[in-house]
Amino acid sequence: MNIAGRKIAASGLTLTILLLTTVHVSAQSSRAATAASYLQRGHDWMKRGEPERALADFDLAVASDPTLAVSWLARGIARRNQGNISEALADIEQALKLDPQSVPCRYQRSSTLYLLERHTEAEAELDTVVKLSPRFAEAYNDRGVLRHLRGAVAEAVSDYDAAIKLKPRFAAAWMNRGIARLEQGRRAEAERDFNEAMNLNQKFKPAVEQLLRQSKQ
Q: Going by C-beta distance under 8 Å and a sequence separation of 6 or more, which residues neighbour residue 124?
């Protein structure tokens, strides 16, 4: 997430898609093996930029083995990418029922709740994520955004600090911390954060310039 644009960071979505490719399903039954093959093909379609075909294969994966959490998660992400947020949440929550300790499921549930503007629930889910996976930089950044949105700026800065410590080249976290520090009146520190964010990703330059202009008015 990025507090400036209030969008889900692509890094989080990419992380989960990558996790899908590392899941090795034990083919103890033909159903599990079939689901695994549909999952892999669906992922291949995603890489080729064919989301409709990917979704069709994720549908088949769920139908082949409804007990496989990663199939529900994959379909949920695909549905969310198409804008079907409520259906996406239902799939991700089903995945979480099947695998309650899954960090990817919980992280993606939080991201989906955020899109539905259910911020309190999204933040609570991220509390669980960072407990289960304390080195998950994206989770700290996203929780920081949610804290920031509800006005808990000091707490947000603490989360951005954690995200940057874990992932020093995390441009969105530098940007978010700069915005928070600017709101706190720490302009010099904010400008250093903005410079780092722009060095890592030039797409932040227009937003930084606008923020700095507005702060002088």
A: none
